[in-house]
């Protein structure tokens, strides 16, 4: 009976305590929920970042609003903010330096803020956040070019780039990302994940590459790199093996074939029309170095060629001797 009494006391106590902690005392945040140092202003139709956010705030969640602009002072005076979430807004501009006040920021979520048609602006604002450990850029219209702006964020541990049109990742983009353990590249139109985007070894634990048109046999360097990573690296995704879709974890590169283009042999020794001096000759070559395979390209050019052949000069002993004689005569005459 005593136990039931305690249970009832707890059940009736909990909602009250939770309800009290939910009220934000700052008037500008009257529609928001405050739990300790965390401020939640979700789905309340905000069109701009609210003012007078307490300077002790560690987490600010502004998801599901209609915020269109982040001003350079929007987050001024929030030195303790560690987590900022701007998911599902309509951001169309971010002023330079908007995030520069956030010295403690480690997690930033700007995913599905689909009005962002200036992703370069967003990423430029992010480049100064070199302490960022968590970044979600899902559905931010980021292109391969824009992605290069992330190269300085070497503290990142958890990076999500899903639903962007990233057909190519520059070699070395994640070099020096020594803490990166979770990378998600789902639905990004990548046709290959190349090992050269990472360091030779990483601490990567999760690599998500579902829903990409990956061609298994163009990723042989990745398949060679993979066994040198931590044994608990989990890769989730599929690749296309000709017409089949294969679980990337069990793909075996040994049955990949590679088109080999034909190459010309060197020219044969020409057959010359003369035995000495300058004549004409034919030389030929063949398209077999190497021979064609797996739909490789044919050689371009002709198999035979007419050339001028220049053999050793034909001997002309008589005229030479004459020239020598004339010369000696000319030399002797003035002295006599
Ligand atoms: C926050 O603001 C209060 C008063 O406005 C001030 O005393 C305090 O130092 C500030 N704290 C930080 C971390 O800036
Ligand atoms: C990163 O963190 C260090 C150590 O806390 C701090 O000194 C530095 O100012 C931070 N850098 C940025 C860009 O916030
Ligand atoms: C894939 O990403 C594109 C944007 O690049 C988006 O429009 C599309 O809805 C995404 N598909 C899925 C299945 O999420
Ligand atoms: C792939 O599928 C198409 C149509 O289903 C077929 O014509 C083609 O021969 C297949 N290619 C291979 C390499 O199996
Ligand atoms: C890949 O296939 C080859 C030939 O079929 C086989 O010898 C090799 O053991 C396979 N590798 C793996 C990792 O299954
Ligand atoms: C090239 O020409 C020589 C002599 O005309 C002939 O013996 C040889 O078979 C030719 N080679 C090719 C590859 O046509
Ligand atoms: C061969 O020599 C002739 C006469 O010297 C010259 O007109 C011709 O251009 C030369 N052909 C080649 C392929 O060098």
UniProtKB/TrEMBL annotation:
Annotated ranges, domain LRRNT: 23-59
Record-linked InterPro entries: Leu-rich_rpt, Leu-rich_rpt_typical-subtyp, LRFN, LRR_5, LRR_dom_sf, LRRNT, TSP1_rpt, TSP1_rpt_sf
Gene3D superfamilies in UniProt: Ribonuclease Inhibitor, Thrombospondin type-1 (TSP1) repeat
Signal peptide limits: 1-19
SMART domains registered for this protein in UniProt: LRR_TYP (SM00369), LRRNT (SM00013), TSP1 (SM00209)
SUPFAM superfamilies: L domain-like (SSF52058), TSP-1 type 1 repeat (SSF82895)
Keywords: Disulfide bond, Glycoprotein, Leucine-rich repeat, Repeat, Signal
Pfam families assigned: LRR_5, LRR_8, LRRNT, TSP_1
Source organism superkingdom: Eukaryota
Coiled coil, from the record: none
Protein name per the record: LRRNT domain-containing protein
